[in-house]
Amino acid sequence: MLPSEMPITDLGEVADDLAESGRRVRVLWQHSESLAFIARGREYRSEFHLNPSDEVMFMIRGAMNLHYRNPDGSEGVAAIPEGSSIFTPTGVAHSPRFPPDAFVLVIERLRRPGELDRFRWFCPGCDAFLHEESVHIDDYRLDPVAGAYERFFGSVEARTCEKCGTVMPDERL
């Protein structure tokens, strides 16, 4: 018998449960230095996440387009098919975009005191920086992505581009 600190998880079973329940995230573990969770796609995802640790993503079901920002500010896209994984280094702004019937396993390092996850949005009209939400994540079960989205989309000021005047529509609707 394995010690309780060594959980074995049926990834397909967790994906099925998320699909049936409508929830977006199931934390598998978050202890010691390690965090692992399974997430369903969010059809409205548009922000770029800056993670204070390295991140590994494995597509359990479906495919993902991982948008990312290059050092020069341009955007690239990496297509991650089912059964494939990608390593995203600390500080690379990335935006995992995949439908709600697709599921990804994410493994990261737990956040240290004072570390912030940052969520950035860019103007859909001119690609200028729009807004950033920063949060310290001490419990991933609280779904910090949803909280950042609520704050951003709840503010017309945050969604309005100072450069061209475009207002990003509320993509959650």
TrEMBL record:
Keywords: Dioxygenase, Iron, Metal-binding, Oxidoreductase, Pyridine nucleotide biosynthesis. Its cofactor is Fe(2+). InterPro entries: 3hydroanth_dOase (IPR010329), RmlC-like_jellyroll (IPR014710), RmlC_Cupin_sf (IPR011051). One of its GO terms (molecular function) is 3-hydroxyanthranilate 3,4-dioxygenase activity. One of its GO terms (biological process) is pyridine nucleotide biosynthetic process. The keyword Oxidoreductase applies. The keyword Acetylation does not apply. Catalyzes the oxidative ring opening of 3-hydroxyanthranilate to 2-amino-3-carboxymuconate semialdehyde, which spontaneously cyclizes to quinolinate. This is 3-hydroxybutyryl-CoA dehydratase. It comes from Streptomyces malaysiensis subsp. samsunensis.
